[in-house]
Amino acid sequence: MSARPIVIDTDPGVDDALALMLAAASPEVDVRGIIAVAGNVGIDQTAANAAALADLLELACPVGRGAAGPLWRRDTENAAHVHGNNGLGGYELPRSSRELIPGVPLLADLLGGSDEPITVVTIGPLTDIALLINEHADTARQIERLIVMGGGTLDVPGNASAAAEFNFYADPDAAARVFAFDVPITMVGLNATHQALVGPDDLPQLWASGGRIAHLVEHILEDYERAGYGSGGAMEMHDPLAMAIAIDPTLVTTAALHVDIENVGRITAGMAVVDHRHRPGSPPNTDVVMQVDVPRFRALMDTRLAELDRSVG
Ligand code: BDR
Ligand code: CA
User: pLDDT for 103-123, tens place per residue?
Assistant: First the structure.
């Protein structure tokens, strides 16, 4: 089977970095481009991190600099308390000399210029995708599928607020725009990513390899725990789970449901409202990830990161 062409919109971000590693290591996907968006930290830093990670991972694709903040709201707070001021838990990568291309035009060119439809994996706020829809609606309609890390079912709705997951909280209007647009969406929410815990005990092949990737992953896991996040030394693999689904959709089960994003509420802005009622007026618009095959996901992370570690030396 030929590789699935993907474009990644990301705000690296420690778990974004792990997701990029997984993509770079997986022959099932062909990374056509990486667009950085502001989110976990500011755009200068996420763009620099995206380019530095592309260098480290030997990805030849173009790297874009996307939106510097939400569609129209004043900036919401970032997540430097989770990801460190440099977005990589303080880990310093060599600065890239790559040219950074304007992000939304790059996204439009990649989608419009491709012979095959492209899957877009979004692991940051949805601002770039909303801008694409606003400015290039016909091109946006060509997207094969959006695999969106964000939101959560109503039992696990939020981490940035009681009601909202970070990527939707950071730009609720963009998230609402995207979910109202007619393109297939897989929503990888907190209800799923909280199942996808990976800690040091789950990565024996990577530690045995012991190279540069192993060193960076070790740093990420330690810093995440030091910052007070995760569970028992293991990290919720929010963004890597979204990438894993692009690589192997059979890792999860989904339910076709109607999802809308709250962008008006005083204390609920960015909340994914997942409707389980199956009412005719609210037809399914989203495949919501419900269950994760955790042993297979952990095995994928370990095997692929170890292979990557050996290949980048
Ligand atoms: C999401 O928010 C960010 O902090 C992570 O990188 C991930 O994309 C999890 O809520
Ligand atoms: Ca992210």
Answer: 999 999 999 999 999 999 999
- The ligand 1 atom at the shortest distance from the C-alpha of residue 14 is 6
> In the block, which residue shows the tokens 């990976």?
198
The domain that holds 218 is classified in CATH as 3.90.245.10
Residue minimizing CA distance to atom 2 of ligand 1: 166
- pLDDT band for 313, please (50, 70, 90 cuts): confident
- pLDDT value of residue 279: 92
Joined tokens for residue 277:
């009622």
Q: 50: which 2 tokens?
A: 């995206």
pLDDT of 7 > 90? The answer is yes
- Neighbour count for residue 199 (Cβ, 10 Å): 16
Cβ neighbors of 273 (< 8 A, separation 6 or more) are 154, 259, 260, 261, 262
pLDDT category of residue 76 using cuts at 50, 70 and 90 = confident
d(CA 240, CA 304): 12
> Is 219 a catalytic site residue?
no
- How many domains does the chain fold into? 1
Confirm if 19 and 239 have CB atoms less than 8 A apart: yes
Going from the C-alpha of 312 to that of each of 25, 195, 308, the distances in angstroms are 10, 30, 6
Average per-residue pLDDT for the chain: 96
Of 42, 35, 24, nearest in space to 62 by CA: 35
Where in the sequence is the domain holding 163, given as residue range(s)?
4-311
Check pLDDT > 90 for residue 75. no
Residues with CB under 6 A from ligand 1: 13, 15-16, 40, 79, 82, 123-124, 149, 159, 165-167, 238-239
Q: How far is the CA of 280 from the centre of ligand 1 (A)?
A: 33
Q: Where are the alpha helices (DSSP H) in 198-293?
A: 204-209, 212-226, 238-247
* Positive or negative: CA dihedral 239, 241, 243, 245: negative
- Cβ distance 41 to 80 under 8 Å? yes
